[in-house]
Amino acid sequence: MKDEVILSSAYLAPVEYYVKLYQYGKAYIEQHDHYMKQTYRNRCMIASADGPLSLTIPTEKNESPKCSMKDIRISDHGKWRHVHWNALVAAYKQSPFFDYYSDDLARFYEQRYEFLFDFNLELCQWICEQIDLQPMLLPTNDYEAVPLGADDFREIIHPKKDYEQFDSNFNPCSYYQVFDAKLGFLPNLSIVDLLFNMGPESLLVLRDSIVK
C-alpha cells in the first residue's frame, strides 16, 4: 500500500470510496479523465423502502465524445435537485441523524452548481468534515494512465464492479439501516446512508471495513 490514492470524482460516493479516504493521508481526485456515464461520477445508490434506489444527476450534452470530467456541466433537466432531495427525505427522515445533518446537506440542492466536478468535490469535503475524516483532497493536475506513487482506484470503485472481486482490502462492516428489518443489510451504499444512520460513529464503520 502506498501513501497516496487516486480516485475518480463521485457523487455522494459509496462507503468503499470513503474507506480509501480513511486509509490514505492524501487523495488525488481525477478531473482530467474522459467523462463516462453509468459510473459514480454522476450517480449514487441509497436505500429506499422498496430497496436500493439509484439517483442520477443529468449532464449537458457535449459536442466532443471525449470531454474531460472537469468540463462536464450539470443539466437542470427533470428538476433533479428536487427529485433527489425528496428521495433522500423519504429514505432517511426516520434515520437517527437525519435532522442533525439535513439542513446543511439541503443547501447543496438549493444552490446551482455549473460543473459536476465542483459539486462532487464540495459535497465530498462536507461529508469528510461531518465524520471527522481529514484526508488531503487534491484535484489532479493532468491525466496519468499509470500514476506513480499512488494506488489507483479510479475504475475499481464502479457500480458494475464487484468489490469482492476487485478490492480485496474492503469488506463492508454492517451497521444499522432504517429498512434493514425488511430488506436486510445493504452493503456499500452511498456515504449518506452511513452518515444518516450512524452519525459520528461512521468513522468507526469505515475503520472496521478495512481488511488488514
Strand and helix map with partners:
Blueprint: E1 4-8, H1 15-23, E2 26-30, E3 43-48, E4 51-56, H2 80-92, H3 98-110, H4 116-130, E5 136-139, E6 150-152, H5 163-166, H6 180-183, H7 191-198, H8 202-208
Parallel strand pairs: 1-2, 1-6, 2-5
Antiparallel strand pairs: 3-4
Helix pairs in contact: 2-3
Describe the structure.
- The chain has a four-stranded parallel beta sheet, covered by helices on one side. Strands 3-4 form a two-stranded antiparallel sheet.
- The mean pLDDT is 96.
- It contains eight helices and six strands; from the N terminus they run βαβββαααββαααα.
- The longest helix has 15 residues.
- The termini are close together.
- A hairpin with a 2-residue loop joins strand 3 and strand 4.
- It is α/β, with parallel strands linked by helices and 212 residues long.
Q: Look at the structure and give the mean pLDDT.
A: 96
Strand order of the largest sheet: 5-2-1-6
Gross geometry? globular
Low-confidence stretches: none
Element pattern in H and E:
EHEEEHHHEEHHHH
Helix-and-strand structural type: alpha/beta
Strands, total number: 6
Work out the strand percent. Answer: 5-15%
Radius of gyration based on Cα positions? 16 Å
Annotation field: number of helices = 8
Helical fraction equals: 25-40%
Distance between the terminal alpha carbons, to the nearest Å? 11 Å
Biggest sheet record? 4 strands, parallel
